[in-house]
Amino acid sequence: MKKTLLVIEDQSEIRQLLRMTLEDEGLEIFECADAATGEILARECRPDAIVLDVMMPGPFDGLELCRRLKADLTLSGIKVLMVSARGHRNDVLIGRQAGADEYLIKPFSPARLAAQLHLWFDEPPPLQPDIAV
What we know:
Elements: E1 4-8, H1 12-23, E2 28-32, H2 35-45, E3 49-53, H3 62-71, E4 79-84, H4 89-98, E5 102-105, H5 110-121
Parallel strand pairs: 1-2, 1-3, 3-4, 4-5
């Protein structure tokens, strides 16, 4: 069965790169550019995992969305991989406290992100070059 991924990222270039990288790996990708739309999509499509940016426009950010997802018993089992340009140890800690299962600092390698998803999905990752975005 095809695994589903929701990408919530305001930078369209990053969404496009992740889509191109991860669709080749057999994932079904849903995407949006803000946390409010991401919350709606998460409830509708019930993805296996979410790639979630921290800083986005809108009424709330990725940290708040992560807290909301993890507080909802019907959504709390979804793995959340948080991505952010904020890379200080305290930022990572705040992301983890919000409920992120993993935290990658931008620029990050799409291959590293794909490898983490494969770990969660119990699948061996295909070999890919390690290029940061």
